[in-house]
Amino acid sequence: MSPLPWRVQDFHEYLRTGNSLFHGSAAGPMAPVVHEGLSALPDADIKALSVYFGELAGDNNNEPAASPKLQTADQAQHKTTDLRIDHGARLYNSTCSACHYSSSQLVKGRPLLALGSATHLDDPSNLINVILDGFRSDQGIRGVVMPQFREALNDDDITAIATYLRQTANEQPWPI
């Protein structure tokens, strides 16, 4: 599930590099598919897969920058929050925002988390696993890492960050 439709170029970027600017990074079972399997294919094959997946997804070639979902996520990300009150926002700003999109420009490999598929799923497991275990250098974009926070954050902290991210994505909090 993604707040923005997948386009052919999004599939190509994800399948070739392990990361899509508007959809996130390949982790878990997708990391070896991208980095060990698909990386051996010629680019023409990756393009063919991307076109096929784009057709399945109903690629409409809309520019993501014009999407109301992106604009809403951007506004929520930059909304002034009373960090003394919102524990999740405070934790996000001190723990996550140095790497995850805190400017007006999207940066490859440092996604706007309000757009990530894990933030929009009905089950929080993917997001929680990424917070707990991070990304190794062989996942997502090769060489880019996200530290694990398994030892640094407790369950309440992780819940607060996940809840804050759901709010920035204009989604209802997951049931606790």
TrEMBL record:
Q: Which InterPro entries match?
A: Cyt_c-like_dom, Cyt_c-like_dom_sf, Cytochrome_c-type_DH
Keywords tagged on the record: Heme, Iron, Metal-binding
- The keyword Signal is annotated on this UniProt entry: no
Boundaries of every Cytochrome c domain copy = 83-169
Q: Which domain of life is it from?
A: Bacteria
Keyword Membrane, does the record have it? Answer: no
**GO molecular function terms here?**
electron transfer activity; heme binding; metal ion binding
Record's PANTHER family? ALCOHOL DEHYDROGENASE CYTOCHROME C SUBUNIT (PTHR35008:SF8), BLL4482 PROTEIN-RELATED (PTHR35008)
State the protein's name.
Cytochrome c
Q: From which source organism is this entry? A: Pseudomonas putida
Taxonomic classification, please? Answer: Bacteria, Pseudomonadati, Pseudomonadota, Gammaproteobacteria, Pseudomonadales
